[in-house]
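ugh ok fine here u go
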Amino acid sequence: MNKLIKTLKNIWAIDELKQKLLVTLLFVLVYRVGAQITLPGIDANVIAEANKTGGDRGILGLFDMFAGGAFSQASIFALGIMPYISASIFMQLLTILVPSVQKIQKEGESGRKKINQWTRYLTVIVTAFQSFAYVAYLNRPGYSEAILEGYRLYFTASTVVVLTAGTLFVMWLGEKIQDKGIGNGTSIIIMVGILARLPQSLILDFQSKSQKGGGGLLIFLIEIAIFVGIVLALILLVQGVRKIPLSYAKQIVGMGANKYQGGNARQFLPIKVNSAGVMPIIFAQAIMFLPTLISFSDLNTNTGFLKIFNDQSNFWYMSIYSFMVIAFTFLYTALIFNPKQISEDLKRNGGFIPGVKPGQPTTDFIGAIMDKITLPGAIFLALVGILPGFAQRLGVTQGFSSFFGGTSLLIMVGVILDTLQQIETYLLMRKYDGLMSNGRIQGRQYSMPAEVQG
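structure:
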């Protein structure tokens, strides 16, 4: 406890860090307040009653989780940040598949700004489509009664405008958190929306287990223990690294000449088991959300192709989801990890891998190791992604089962570790102790030794 109090005092003593934390909390508060504001022309009490009798399941439940409950509450932030995520993924794929767009991306800062602007325009289009689908969703039986009779004439137009503006505002909040706060703004907004559902999910699961035939307190405690174990395993996955030994030529200056004595300075090149972090899960989930472009109301059917996307415990859902997670893991790792660049940086700074020649052999060696550890990391990531489906099959309520793995838990663990890592960096820069008495917190992003970075 004394260590915790001392750490909090150290954090508060750094003015820049304190300001960033306060700004982040302020923007998060604004987001959560906006998520409670109901759309114009909607009776919030009727919506609440409709949710009690016919709450969303399947992919709509996941969508609601990402929106922090705003979707089911018919809030002005009902669509959340997911249209922006979908647009960003589409633009990233274009930079890979379309040479002209790839050329623009390589133009530096100007190219990045241009692609960001196109992403915003695409976000408006995607949000508008989903807004019309959401209007159809609200016009289904049980929810249409919530629309005020005197407002029905204007409801579609106003809802599309308000929802589109709401998503753009949430996107702006994410960018402001990124610029003036701490952590990745988009990821923090998603994490806050997910965490907002955790207390309610725990209460509902406890009530379910307390009922006759539910298993009682013992089963609930076993579920909590398994949940904690999964969290610990995810932390190991996020922080797990393969260390490649490095040697650096130590420079000795004297007698008017520079001499080098090799092997005196030993370092390690840490390669993460999961270099792609949580991005493959987000990409895969965004693809699974694509049917929402058709109509939210159609997703409530339990027949045909859409049935696959409406049931996390469905075999085909888990198979498709696993395949996409593994594929996106390899794709995203290839985008962010460049063995040739690392090899060149090592050679430029006088570093080498013992027993491996500099240049192309070093590039091939690093690439081979990356390939070996990426496959098991991708498989384990896919397994974590489908754990909620198995949890549902074992009797865990749908709300709480989504925290047993999948997108929600990976985002929470990854974002929290990233944010803590940034806070710890500020502490270490000011010569304070880190957040942990032994070791250092590692985030999800690939990191290199200072010597390699040059």
